[in-house]
Specification:
The protein contains five helices and four strands; from the N terminus they run ββββααααα. By secondary structure, it is of the alpha+beta class. The chain has a two-stranded antiparallel ribbon.
């Protein structure tokens, strides 16, 4: 994820590292000449298998919780795409859907009111505290940065992907992207 500034330079604040392994199975067979005579052996490509492995997700240290969380949501979406075979996407499609995930995460984290578990567990992970006005405003600001980003890849990509997700839902959008390698 790059953060665009007013001078159109970018600062990398998060990164998903992945590795592609291409396994080629090669078949050797005889070459048949005139009169069905074997004239030699030829080697031809028989099958190609591709496997992706996510090796790391990196995030710039020291950022506020909401900003860090949105970056992680974005980078984890890159990882999910790689691990699920979405490997030939145009940058605006891939970054756009990753920005949608960051935006959705921010939305879920900054919803008004308190969300708490109905269970009697005292575990801190089972309860969420009420959001302060500051945290709600900070979350709204980070969502606005995503929404108004002037970049063709991150900003326009997000706006196009979000429009499709709002219309068809996330699951159907991802299914279409998998088949068409593009947004509907």
């Amino acid at each position: 994820m790059d953060l665009q500034n007013h001078h159109h330079n970018s600062l990398t604040i998060g990164m998903c590292l992945s590795e592609e392994q291409v396994i080629k199975t090669v078949m050797t067979r005889p070459k048949i000449g005139r009169g069905n005579r074997i004239t030699g052996l030829i080697t031809e490509l028989y099958k190609v298998e591709r496997h992706w492995q996510v090796t790391a997700i990196l995030v710039l240290y020291g950022l506020p919780r909401l900003f860090t969380g949105s970056i992680l949501a974005h980078e984890m979406m890159h990882a999910w795409l790689r691990l699920n075979g979405y490997t030939c996407l145009e940058p605006d499609v891939e970054e756009g859907i990753c920005q949608v995930m960051a935006h959705m995460w921010l939305e879920s984290e900054t919803m008004a009111g308190s969300i708490s578990s109905s269970s009697s567990s005292s575990s801190s992970s089972s309860k969420r505290r009420a959001k302060s006005e500051f945290e709600k405003k900070l979350g709204a600001y980070h969502k606005l940065l995503i929404e108004k980003n002037p970049s063709r890849v991150y900003g326009a990509g997000f706006r196009a992907a979000m429009a499709v997700v709002n219309r068809y839902g996330l699951r159907r959008t991802l299914e279409h992207i998998k088949r068409a390698e593009a947004l509907p």
